[in-house]
Amino acid sequence: MQFASDNAGPALPQVMEAMIAANAGHAPSYGAEALMDEVRDRLRTLFEAPRASVYLVATGTAANALALATLSEPWQTVFCTPLAHVHTDECNAPEFFTGGAKLSLVGDGDKMTPDALARAIGGWPSGDVHTPQHGPVSLTQATERGRVYTCDEIAALCGVTRDHGLPTYMDGARFANAAAALGCPPAEMTWRAGIDAVSFGGTKNGCLGVEAVIFFNPENAWEFELRRKRSAHLFSKHRYLSAQMLGYLADDAWRDAAQTANARAARLAEGLRAVPGAGMVHDREVNMIFARLPRATHRRLMAAGAAYALYEGPLDSGPEDEPLMARFVCDWSVGEDEIDRFLEMAAG
Amino acid sequence: MQFASDNAGPALPQVMEAMIAANAGHAPSYGAEALMDEVRDRLRTLFEAPRASVYLVATGTAANALALATLSEPWQTVFCTPLAHVHTDECNAPEFFTGGAKLSLVGDGDKMTPDALARAIGGWPSGDVHTPQHGPVSLTQATERGRVYTCDEIAALCGVTRDHGLPTYMDGARFANAAAALGCPPAEMTWRAGIDAVSFGGTKNGCLGVEAVIFFNPENAWEFELRRKRSAHLFSKHRYLSAQMLGYLADDAWRDAAQTANARAARLAEGLRAVPGAGMVHDREVNMIFARLPRATHRRLMAAGAAYALYEGPLDSGPEDEPLMARFVCDWSVGEDEIDRFLEMAAG
Amino acid sequence: MQFASDNAGPALPQVMEAMIAANAGHAPSYGAEALMDEVRDRLRTLFEAPRASVYLVATGTAANALALATLSEPWQTVFCTPLAHVHTDECNAPEFFTGGAKLSLVGDGDKMTPDALARAIGGWPSGDVHTPQHGPVSLTQATERGRVYTCDEIAALCGVTRDHGLPTYMDGARFANAAAALGCPPAEMTWRAGIDAVSFGGTKNGCLGVEAVIFFNPENAWEFELRRKRSAHLFSKHRYLSAQMLGYLADDAWRDAAQTANARAARLAEGLRAVPGAGMVHDREVNMIFARLPRATHRRLMAAGAAYALYEGPLDSGPEDEPLMARFVCDWSVGEDEIDRFLEMAAG
Amino acid sequence: MQFASDNAGPALPQVMEAMIAANAGHAPSYGAEALMDEVRDRLRTLFEAPRASVYLVATGTAANALALATLSEPWQTVFCTPLAHVHTDECNAPEFFTGGAKLSLVGDGDKMTPDALARAIGGWPSGDVHTPQHGPVSLTQATERGRVYTCDEIAALCGVTRDHGLPTYMDGARFANAAAALGCPPAEMTWRAGIDAVSFGGTKNGCLGVEAVIFFNPENAWEFELRRKRSAHLFSKHRYLSAQMLGYLADDAWRDAAQTANARAARLAEGLRAVPGAGMVHDREVNMIFARLPRATHRRLMAAGAAYALYEGPLDSGPEDEPLMARFVCDWSVGEDEIDRFLEMAAG
Predict the structure, then answer these.
(1) Where is the Aromatic amino acid beta-eliminating lyase/threonine aldolase domain (chains A, B, C, D) (predicted)?
(2) How far is CA B65 from CA C165, C228, D172, D230, D322, in A?
(3) pLDDT tens digits, one per residue of A190-201
(4) Among A75, A100, A129, whose Cβ lies nearest the Cβ of C100?
């Protein structure tokens, strides 16, 4: 009953096999190996972007911080939601990598609207030396609350940023889950909608630790390479990043894994509706569910070894039937039986 | 005939097996997995340092830059040799991670002497607000030229730094090769000699990408953890770093691999002595050789597919018999037959 | 009719005279001159803090950014209001000087309450490596909207920060105006209420460009000195900063100037009440007024050469009687006749 | 007998008078005052550079660090001599302002030669992601040892930098002394010789604290303005910087003061030749002398209250006739009688 995070799950067999296959003989280091050429080709094809710059790093925070730093200047402000991973969960990595840029918050939830974005940008005057200058916008797809921007929503947001001459970055730590949910091609969800750079996350969806960063404008390439190197994120034995990504891309493994994870979450969400006192915070869209369960139910589940993140508390004191919010994440490896067992136990 | 770098070689079978074994079921993320507890225990035992703080990162540059940043302040200067990796090969990573510290160069080669170190420290006055302040000393063991500090040499250098109240860091990207060469226990080469923090490199010696950073003074622990996180070097699926390190530590695999690599380089060095016109720059000590070969010999070897780094040139023009310096590195996987073939070809 | 800012006014005669007097012969540089000893003594006496560390810098932003950087770590978050100068008007100086700390916003106005502060601090968990860590709190006294924290209010806020083990900084760019308004001794408004460091602003209140930064805990002294030097804010001919501050402190010139400025603003505020369609946004407390006047009135005033900052607009289009917010600041040099002339014109 | 530094001397009467004149009524802040327009015009005329961007800051370190940061990227290396003020006397300000660039040292003294510069640049490969990238070159005119680059020497150095596509900055803290020594127009010594940006120092030559930073390429302007603001070096009451510079420029006061200071140093140098046991380290070129005097002579002079910087020591122990190097600086205000008195005393 493991719903703590999609980064608690194992790697896909295809990914491990690609790693093992890559572990033969000598290979040029630092991304000069042939496998990386293949990765680049495949991702350009997948994104229908033959001139895109493609890089690999090992963590989602590295992808975010490096991409935002490449798209901004230290005297600018990045725009993101108050729940954005880059704001809440990276111990100031964006501030560090950008050399001291500010993060300005858009709206009050996990998804930004064009109006809220325009208001946030307008909150800082343009071209006044005293204030932070306008910098890139960062969207998370799927969001930190498990919701998905439709391609139209993305295009509307990018319309706002383009009106201000700003670049837009998509934090795609759960890109695959969003793409699977929307059933749309990666190009639709990104550059055709106006996205300038995206991270294509592998770690949470069946890799060991690899994220692709893709710039649709190759002008950013060399700066990104320098930033990656000086932040110690250029791997010498880079072939093991490439191999992971190749295993992940082969035969649409990335999409299959995301569909599986999403389907598992759907099963869990459906079951939760029948649990006494349970209520969904949002409708489920990808592989992550936010729901409220009575305190007593949480206690019973946790005692039985269920792993998930409680967002409200405390667990130990308070009315037994008070609903407390929790996050449940399904990765590709969670079994249906495990979900059913969990639901049974939740039902009491 | 692969002598380009020890980061061009494959991972040890034991390391890959540990990775595969670790890829089962769910595990807590971010270093909270049980495997990391085991890594910590083993490294504390290996270093005879039961209270040491132990961390894993994926690149040598991350280990160096994070350790030095933890031991310094932005207004200080780090002391290192002009050939130190932290100075020449990290695209200003130490300057970035420290928030703008300076690197002051000690001596003019790869190995520092106590005298040169004392002169470099004395080159900046103490407690004058105008100058950079004294910061940590960084030694590379084995050095970037393949030489080894004896434990006495290390102790003498640490004596100088201690006299100035400064911490000493050991860049141990090739720690195993040095330890194997000296045949001494890790504790001798580090804290007993006065070292405050060390990186215990795995990447170049048969891992995929993992380095342990060990602080013998646990006071530095929390700051290191924050720095690692905000520089995006804390892995979510950390178990794959732990697994590599466990495979590397089990049954002294790390020492065996280093002994093998050193022995291969010894065979190569011995053979090179018989090559007409060849000359060693330094006596071989670990798995890395610096030697001069006539231009014509280089040309013949490279045409035949030998891979190694030429440090002088150009290859294409100049007297055929002019000796040009090159670096030859043996990793654990280089075969004796490969070496012999290379030597035969070098002999003409 | 100059109400644009208190930094648009001239220096006090006493301050200029002190500058002229200081311009004789040679003097040690970088703060080693005898005048600085006198400054230190006087400020320690004024603040009843014999062990305080006292420094001078030339701009308010330098005072704020250096003090906050000294009190924080790069992985922390500073807490301030959304209208704080450090957030809105320093082009990311705090982010730059701290090495990439975050600013977290407290409440939604210019003055923070203990509840809002506690909520903001509680918004980030304690000791979780993923989130920004708790850092210093920054209060502006008087606030950017011309309001004053009473000593009790300051003590209540410092109680919250102390409960969390955090330091509190007071941005005192208009310290004198607040102290004059409260009629309380500097010690009451600062360390007795729990403030750890304060800027004692001179620039806006009759100096040319000087702010004292005072740390009540002398442990911060050396770090501040290093930060001041490496940010290029240590003046070689420091005597001219010292002289300004001495002229400012002599015979309570600083308090007199603030009282005058406050009184002028009071006269202006009183007069505005009689202006048709005018309304105060806040009750006047110091030398700064926020009021709304009809668009037509603004147009008439500006056409006549009145200088002040319009916060709402546009001026040119919209209903003639629509009230638009503006800021009016009186410095010590604004004449009563000027104010009366302005009011007459405003009345129509 | 004040020869400690040209920053220990007073401001010129013309500069003080301009300050006093500027202290009347209200004026726009942050450089929007009319006086700054006049400064800009005059400096453009003086430098025969009608499109140059012109800014004022209050310290030489601010001028240097801001200019170098504007001309570089964090992953680059600045080139300067080992005696450069930016390397030795700014507590890592260039590293801080650039966001972590490295300083690479050229030659082993205070003046660089084209050969040494080319060697230093060639010491780092071009376009290799692992090494620091080539950044701006920083020359000090006059040097930290009181020597002057001729216009031909500057042009030759700029030829090297231009061959590598790098910008050249001139640290002109003693620009006036150098220009007076060479008797050449500012344009000759700067952009006509290939200089991209220069600081035109006022502080050491009779101002209170003001340096102009001039970019001959106006493309750098806006970035400089943002960097100046976020480093807290944009003065609100900027008129007092402008006034100083205007007083300094009027009637060639800047050149007269420098000529006076140079002439005083010439008198001192000439006199020192007659002092028993004295020897010049360099021929005098501007207002700064490096000479060796016997230990006993130093002791006698210092006991009599002479102020200057001893570079070798210790003063208290060692042979009485051992020559110890010292620096003697004359500012415009040092009297001839004072010099003669000093020489008399030195003679014994």
Answers:
(1) 2-290
(2) 30, 25, 35, 26, 45
(3) 999 999 999 999
(4) A100
